Amino acid sequence: MTQKRRDDESESVDAEIANLEAEREAFIVQQEAVIIKLRQLREAEDKKTGTYFAKEIFQLSQDKLCLASEIDIRRRKINRLKMPDDMHGMLH
Q1: 24-40: per-residue pLDDT in tens?
Q2: How many helices (H) and strands (E) does the chain have?
Q3: CA 26 from chain center: how many Å?
Q4: Partner residues linked to 46 by β-bridges
């Protein structure tokens, strides 16, 4: 493999890592917003008046779990891309 090809592959991997990190950060921001909204809804519930937000809380909880999964997927992809080439064969 030539040095030029290695440099091109390295740049490609670096670009992919940067993209994955940006996606991960965007999901983290979304997750933080969901957590805030969940907290607000839970605090707004009132047993005395019968005000409940179970459906909304359930949906936001599901969204939070999905976002956590997306964050974890991006983290794993980043870690895999950062792994030395000789380590990739050990994963299979």
Answers
A1: 999 999 999 999 999 99
A2: 3, 0
A3: 8
A4: 51
